[in-house]
Amino acid sequence: MSTRLFGEPMPRREDPRLLTGQGRYLDDLGPGALAAAFVRSPHAHARIRDIDVSGALDVDGLVAVYTWEDLPERIGRPLPLLIPHPALTHGRTARPLARDVVRHVGEPVVMVVAEDRYLAEDACALIEVDYEVLEPVAGLEEAARGDRLVHADVPGNVGAHLVQEVPSAGGRSAADAIAAAPHTLSFRLDIERSASMPLEGRGVYARWDGADLRVYSSTQTSTSVRMAIAAALELPLPHVEVIAPDVGGGFGVKIVHPWPEELLVPWAAMLLGREVKWAEDRREHFVAAAHERGQVHRVRVGFDDEGRVLGLDVSILHDHGAYTPYGIIVPIVTSTQLLGPYRIGAYRVEFTAVYTNTVQVTPYRGAGRPQGVFCMERTMDKIARHLGKDRTEVRAANLIRPEEFPYDQGLTFQDGRPLVYDSGDYPEMLRMIKELIGWDSFERAPGRGIGIGCYVEGTGVGPYEGGHVQITSDGRVHVSTGLTSQGQGHETAFAQIAATELGVPVERVSVVTGDTRRFGYAVGTFASRAAVMSGNAIALACAEVRAKALRVAAAALEADPADLTVTDGLVHVVGAPSASIPLATVAVLANPLRYAFDEETARATQFAGAASPDRPPVEPGEEPGLEGRGYYSPIRSTFAAGMHAAVVETDPETAEIKVVRYAVVHDCGRLINPMIVEGQIHGGVAQGIGGALYERMAYDGDGQLLNASFMDFLMPYATEIPPIETGHLETPSPLNPLGIKGAGEAGVIPVSAVIASAVEDAEGISIDRMPLSPSDLFHLREGA
Amino acid sequence: MKPPPFVHHAPRDVGETLEILAEAGPRGKVLAGGQSLIPMLNMRLAAPEHVIDINRLTELDTVEAGPGGVTVGALARHARVARAGVHPLLGQALRLVAHPVIRNRGTVVGSLAHADPAAELPAVLAVLGGSVRVARAGAAPRDVPAAEFFTGPMESALRPGELAVSAHFPALPPRTGTAFAEVSRRHGDYALAGVCAVVTLDGDLRVASARLACIGVGPVPLVVDLGADWKSAADAARERAEPDGDVHASAAYRLHLVGVLARKAAERAERTAREAAA
Predict the structure, then answer these.
(1) Are A720 and B186 a contacting pair at CB < 8 A?
(2) Distance from A689 to chain B by nearest Cα, in Å?
(3) What are the residue ranges in chain B where pLDDT is below 50?
(4) What predicted TM-score, i.e. pTM, was given to this entire model?
(5) Which pLDDT value is given to residue A610?
(6) What is the ipTM metric for this complex?
(7) Which CATH number does B176-277 carry?
(8) B65-170: what fold?
């Protein structure tokens, strides 16, 4: 059989396990562990006057109750601000348990540990917290007015303010370019809050044996959780292990760390000398994890008769919720990725990030891009409408040409590096999407519209990832990488890379991710980076292992390593397959032994006669065994791109909106596994349709989340998602050895823009605010 | 999201059930399909001390069709009633009730007792003028007409200690057509607004009577008797509906919607009546 697996649509090997209930998620572990539960604030803003736990003490099975006063200093202090930035002048983070003021509904106040979760919740219900209720800051614009403060020491509720400006080639500022342009438009665009909403919530399970702490967490970064726990609990790093088991989705929310529970649960386990577990329930996830997307954008654009953008000025009001643990990554990404596949004359972007008494905001799949793309694509549509031109013609006039790569947008990206697009072919992509959806032959009718949206996505941000590859004496290949998996198909894609690079059957390759016992150095899974970062690192590790295998085999075969290759797990002389040695045997020979336990290993013992008596059994510079380690660290991100188009139908009477067709053309460089990429796109588009038509966080004026359940937070079902048609374009990245770009977030990014474009086309009404419900459309029609 | 402590009772017959219910009084709650009660328990929105589980009362797992109509026992699941195909309007409504998994577990009588103002089945009972049979220990069962059964949002005429043992859906007269039209946010969700219609023709194939029941636009199913003037459905429904706005839709949109749906349902019912008469 062929071992050339890179690029094959191989079915995901994790699916039989995950689809038949064999997955091992956080709450499947530790059946005998004590259960933690939390008393959380019912108020959006309040001062804690007193906490009376006495009522809970009668609950049979209660083990412990902790308030902030019980916490040691290193745990009770504010949680880390993970990504500091000079513009984030007033960053604020929560304490694991509230000390004096609570700033959103759901903030943890008391931790209860009991024999099981039922009893823990019974005890929670009997704890009385006396609150002095304060006026909440509920809406974005109320926050910006600054009449009431979320944090007493943050004037005007402004956490961060950042301006980036790129003059035109002729040195004109955006303001001047707009003032001088033949046409100008200005408008406001809104996107409401949504959330990652993985089907498995967060969760932590900790075991302490008196010397070593093992923590399982449903996280997107086990290595960083490990370092955070070791620091907070003052444990030496080698005595802390963190493992991400099967994780039922992340979508960004689980990259945040350490969550309060990730410190409190291990701390309690050590204190009590018992295993302790906390599995987040759905209600907790709505009010105590993180949200995203809520932003208001004011756009001014100047353009010429062809629709070419001469100047663009965007002012963004970003809702940070109550805290900023993940810094200002989201508005930075909006600001920089807003430009999409376009060459813009002059650009100025400014954002103000304000606090509100709502759940904190951290990246959710797309991470600020859906908002930026909404701005840019609505702008393109408005220019087309103003000039009476076809919407794709205006886009074509602004696209960066293939010969312009690498293309420097002149901005600083979220990794602190220059925003330089490495490769792409945007005009070809536009041609492909128009053909796929049938743009030029579309028959417009009342209540039937077509829309388009384009984006560029910086993927594979650094600083690095690593991979470890070991071939054992049974011929099996064990791959590990430190970043984590939440259902992306890493077990399959990384195995395809290793099998291809090593020349072994893929069935012999197994992959472990997110287990600090296996690999201690990693950053995490976010920013569409896993395939780019760990994929390349694993390929580099494989190259090292392969080179060693050839050296060892060359000695055994009395051949020159340069004449050898590996096919189907056999090392052989090129062109002479009969002179061969299995990798299993090479692994045996690579590890000189004193003791044998079977016939294979007997060949590596000291009287077997294979080794030269004049050389040390392990040559200087060599190591025993057949293993290698590789790290990949890119100079900057690689830029994937895509264009989506959709056909919608709107009901003239009920204002229901139906997406009847959805087409995607996508370029993530070289495809490791097209089936996995398509799956990522399908899931992303479904999540995007959720954000465009169904999902929002409905806060009332008191800061209460009114739809904090799956009954009222409307995640779309399969019945709401049309078939998704896809086309792939492959422009390899010149930045990494495998030529790949990230694909994880792609599907979700332009969907709100595409649906708005299509509904606007069907209705002839400006669609400037998403999501859009039938009720919203009804009122837009009434106002038109 | 774990329920507070409660005592679980698993009686084997109706008599035993009624005794337990009488004992528990207001501290008791009946568990049938559990599609509403279990989430309410888990969210601690309900905290009954006694949960009386009627899932072993096979004597109530009945669907009996007769010339006068269909009587559905308290343990008959939606899916079973739908499969029985014993009443056109009931069938039309059940297709709109949630999803197969929920229909496999949830019960028709349970949905009536839950009395959600946006649920389909209360509207069917109301528009047909059906009734719910209510039993209590030491007394003869009483039949509560639909018009008296639904008393408010999530409120029914069931009193503490009582069990809804069955519901009766009257048969349709000859030359009668029915329809159910609704708009929900997602497939299977509770309706933003919905209307079921029953239209009966006279011997000359003129509309003799038309009745609507509207959901999602008031505290209980809103029954609108149009008489012969079935074409006034939209205006009549809008005139009487008093919807509230919520996170899913404004009151104004719901009011608009109920008119659209009333017209659609009435037209569709009139058409099926003609087909039935032909």
Answers:
(1) yes
(2) 12
(3) none
(4) 0.96
(5) 62
(6) 0.96
(7) 3.30.390.50
(8) 3.30.465
